[in-house]
Amino acid sequence: MPGVQLFKILDNEGKSCNGGSLQWSLPTKGDDGEWTPGEWHKMLGPIARCSVGFHLVPARNVFAWLGSRDRRIFLAEGDGACDVDSGKAAFTHARLLVEITSDWPLLPMYPVLRAALWAVRAIPDLSGADLLGANLLGADLSRAYRPTGPPRTWTPDDDGYLRESSK
């Protein structure tokens, strides 16, 4: 699937966590900051989404597969026969290319991945994240930071709007 960036969600040990228990060959980051992809995983026979194959998802569906704070997100590549719908794809061949971390250079282009990293506590906050257009369906934001009141330097004006005090 050239041009389509797909992702794989694994547990903290690099094992499948949404069905199956495969220990994936993980990509490694060299001293120069460059990533070496993991080995290809291959299977024989017919594949079918939701039951047989190496399953990968587009960025917009990452939250649907997180399920826990103990997860890692990888940029992945699928090859060979595939069974695809709008939410995921199953392949006969797959490998992991890069672990998505807070210093991934393309992270600003994927606000939903930044939010997902925050959800699994890989980054401490979402300061500066532009989540406009991010599909957060399935996102557990129950522990999201929510101030209990306005900052002390802010007070309501005559119209009831909070304004920063000049005092």
Helical content stands at under 10%
The secondary-structure element order is EEEEEHEEHEE
Total helices: the number is 2
Low-confidence stretches: none
> Quick one: how many beta strands?
9
Q: How large is the radius of gyration?
A: 20 Å
Count the domains: 1
Strand content: 25-35%
Mean pLDDT: 81
Query: How far do the termini sit from each other?
Result: 59 Å
Give your account of this protein's structure.
The chain has two helices and nine strands. The N and C termini lie far apart (59 Å). The chain is 8% helix and 29% strand. The protein is elongated and about 70 Å long. With 167 residues, it is mostly beta strands. The strands form three sheets. Strands 1, 4, 5, 6 and 7 form a five-stranded antiparallel sheet that branches. A two-stranded antiparallel sheet has the order 2-3. The chain has a two-stranded antiparallel sheet with strand order 8-9. The mean pLDDT is 81.
Topology:
Blueprint: E1 6-11, E2 28-29, E3 35-36, E4 41-42, E5 54-58, H1 62-66, E6 71-84, E7 89-99, H2 111-119, E8 154-156, E9 162-164
Please sum up the structure shown.
With 167 residues, this protein is mainly beta.
Question: What descriptive keywords fit this protein?
Answer:
five-stranded antiparallel β-sheet; 8% helix; single chain; 2 helices; mainly beta; 167 residues; elongated; two-stranded antiparallel ribbon; 9 strands
